Amino acid sequence: MEIVLEKEKIDALGIDLSTIANAIKSLNLDLPIGNFSLGDKQYDYRISGKNTSSFEFLSTPISLANGGTITLGEISRIERDYASTTRDLVIIGDTGSGKEYIGLTINKSDGYSIFAASDAAKKNIEEIFDTPEFSGLGFIYGSDLAETIREDYKALAREATTTLVLVFIVIYLFVGFKEAVFASVTLPLAFLATFILLYAMGYSLNFLTNFSLILSFGIAIDTIIVIVQAASSKIKIGYNPKSAILLAINEYAIPIISGVATTIVVFVPMMTLPGILGKFLAYIPITIFGVLTFGLILALTVNSALYLLFTRRQNTYRENEEILEYANKDERELLQIERE
What phi, psi does 310 have (nearest 5°)? Predict the structure, then answer.
């Protein structure tokens, strides 16, 4: 069914198509407007004003420039629009020859991988066209979102690799080689643990998770390198590696835990939003929570242990009163013993 406007009438009244379209759109609604909880009951509200009959559109009021109104039925009529009798053709090859075709659209089920769905669909299609019933017929893929997404993630992987290389170079130049190695190794481990968390909770990778990974990247880097950076500074002034890493953890564990917790808490309210919006935005806090939490755990445990394993005691030390400014008596005595 089509609404056919009478051009002479709308021109005479000075009405443009956008005014008519907006009038139809504003009164033909079916939108959620929120929910309300009362005890253990939750009520969802929506504006339900969809027209259920084609002719109901004709009663839509249209505002005029002089302040009056008319109905859509006064300037239009309803007509049936029958299917076209022309043939659908697809152009094959460079010859420009047309072939008749039918189209098939395949959508994946919720919770199912788009890559697995695409591969399975293509395999089934190829098997069907190998049968005698389809002899002489061919097929082409007009659009495959799985391939597009594959290319996007390949590009994302290349960018992630480039970013890690740049992070390694920057930390190597301004902090040290070992710190750069540990940051470059630990951050992918934190991302891997986050992917496992998302999978266990039934979440998939999408635009919001990718955005959250990028958002938490810089914060996670700081968390990962601060302990080994502090330990490296302490080794340079004369502490042995084990004492240095333990003192660094004792000194910086609470501040970095507090910093990570503060960042996570900021995003927690997004998990409590009701309705579809809450489910949609929940990807962001969960992903950020995973990256920062796993990065913190790795920084305090695996990262510190690996640093101790690969760090050798130095035969020389440097005087640096700035590092010792806040050291207590026991730490100064320990430093003196280990220097000797």
Answer: -100, 5
Percent of the chain's residues with pLDDT above 70: 95
- Mean pLDDT across 6-30: 87
Residue 49: band (very low, low, confident or very high) from pLDDT cuts 50, 70, 90? confident
318 Cβ contact list (under 8 Å, min separation 6): 236, 237
* Cβ proximity of 303 and 309 under 8 Å: no
Closest by Cα among 247, 245, 226 to 183: 226
| Cα separation, 212 vs 194, whole angstroms | 11
Q: How far apart are CA 335 and CA 337, in angstroms?
A: 5
Rounded Cα–Cα distance for residues 274 and 35 (Å)? 8
At 54 the pLDDT is 81
Q: How far apart are CA 30 and CA 51, in angstroms?
A: 10
Phi-psi map region of 39: left, alpha, beta (phi>0 left; psi -120 to 50 alpha)? left
Indicate whether 234 pLDDT > 80.
Answer: yes
List the structure tokens of 80.
């049936």
- Can you tell me the distance from the alpha carbon of 117 to that of 127, in angstroms, rounded to the nearest whole number? 15
Per DSSP bridges, beta strands 69-71 and 41-48 are unpaired
The answer for 209, left when phi > 0, alpha when psi is -120 to 50, beta otherwise, is alpha
User: Which structure tokens are listed for 253?
Assistant: 């564990």
pTM above 0.70, yes or no: no
Q: What is the mean pLDDT of the chain?
A: 83
Integer Cα distance of 92 and 98 in angstroms: 6
Calpha distance 134→66 (Å, rounded): 64
DSSP 326: T
